[in-house]
Design a protein that fits this description.
Length: 67
């Protein structure tokens, strides 16, 4: 939907959503690495699903390299 067009407009690459168990140690200043991939993902947002402290939904993206 709109997210794809916004990502293209902002020149963002590879947006993704990660769902994992809750941890208070996860925050937006961290960098996420995919296994065996040296290029990092920036965390865009961290959502404590329904504020229950059971699951986190983490939105990440890679920015296009500067030319």
């Amino acid at each position: 939907g709109n997210e794809i067009f916004q990502a293209l407009e902002l020149k963002l690459r590879e947006p993704a959503t990660i769902t994992c168990r809750f941890s208070p140690l996860i925050h937006c200043r961290l960098i996420v690495y995919k296994e065996n991939d040296p290029a990092p993902y920036d965390i865009i947002s961290v959502d404590d699903v329904e504020n229950r402290h059971k699951w986190l939904e983490i939105k990440v993206q890679r920015k296009e390299a500067a030319r």
